[in-house]
Amino acid sequence: MIDQGYRPAGVLGHSLGEYIAATIAGMLALEDGLGLVVQQAQILKQTCAEGSMITVMDSPELYRKRPDIFFRATLGGINYDKSFFVSGLADDLQRVLTALNSASVFSVQLPVRYGFHSSAIDPAESEFRNICRSVRLAKPQIPLYSCALGGVVGDHVLDAADEYLWRIPRGEAQFQTMVANSFPNPERYAFIDLSATATLSGFLKYGFGDRYTHHFAINQFGRNLDSMATLLSRISLQN
Q1: What is the maximum span of the chain, computed from C-alpha positions, in angstroms?
Q2: Which intervals hold domain Malonyl-CoA:ACP transacylase (MAT) (predicted)?
């Protein structure tokens, strides 16, 4: 899209997708962004026990009110008022899933092997931070909105690469907070979801109603060039 003259007013990514957003923004060199993802996967495999993550389609208050259900599970992030996810070790999360089913609470186990955004990945911290310290962060050329920080990325992170880059997979994913803090005037923005699952577009649709205009460009039927052409046509008409 950038090559075709469509320069975004900002970029954002959720969880590991923030590494991609940081690369597009020019904060990470492409080689560093790819290297971090690959090396992180290798370190997790070497140091961490199998984990899991579960999206829960209910108010985050449920997590606070029902510790009996979420015993040993960490609140990994709040997507919107009726959606949050929990994370932890695989056996603990299996018990959570069983308890949610028994309580008739709709939930979805995510297709991941590790408990991102929880202490389940803490054994990887030291080695991953060491790698991050060798990475140079540049000032973003496009504003970068961070779910890890809950707002726009400022210059203060440039001298703390390991802290920021570790916080992306380990800290709470603050999508709802980030949107509320960073985009207070919905009429000024249109969001374009370029992920393979249209997850963020779904968060906006179900969490924020019609307040934000949003599109997704990739579809499960493989007609992505057609989808992109349609999307660019819509953007041109709106402008």
Answers
A1: 53
A2: 1-235
